[in-house]
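Hi support team,

I submitted a single chain yesterday and got back a structure, but I'm not sure I'm reading the token output correctly. Could someone confirm the output below corresponds to the sequence I sent? I've pasted both exactly as they appear in my results page.

Thanks,
R.
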Amino acid sequence: MRLFVAVNLPDEVRAAIWQSTATMRSKEFPIRWVSAESIHLTLKFLGDVDESLESQVIAALESAVLGARGFDLSLAGFGAFPNAHRPRVVWLGCETATALGLVQHRVEEEMNAIGFPFEGRPFRPHLTLGRARREARTTDWRGFDGILRQAAFKGSVAVDTIDLMQSELSRAGARYNRRYEAGLSSL
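Hi R., thanks for writing in. Yes, this is the structure output for that exact sequence:
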């Protein structure tokens, strides 16, 4: 099963983010948009994991959040990796809060201890909203940078759990299911 560790958002925040991208989505840019119910913040992608290891992964997640306090996560600013002129990923930014960075680092350490290698790049918290289609050409992105600059969203969510998620891939896109919820201490 394909697993990852994530911060999930309340449905009303996901819906508001989805609404804020309506203009972008209405254009003919070659983007496969993430559905509103699938918007999340990935802390660690684990990949294909044998079901027999799930209890170890849950124990590592519990260890990672042990003593960690809940925190507020600020969301604002749209962008694209590597850039808006030839994007691969369209995203909504997340404030790099100390608490978020600490939890993410602890997740990395605990998962590494049970055999999942450290991520090779620095953690850049973001919510993936869409991915460029493979067949996209440079000319397909004319005007996208302007649309991206005009889009606006600003919000904040209280984070009180870190979740172990399962990704089920299909032609219609990925569907995510929560496998385990690790609670954080009260704010």
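A quick pointer for reading it: The helical segments are 11-20, 22-26, 54-65, 98-113, 144-150. Let us know if anything else looks off.

Best,
Support desk
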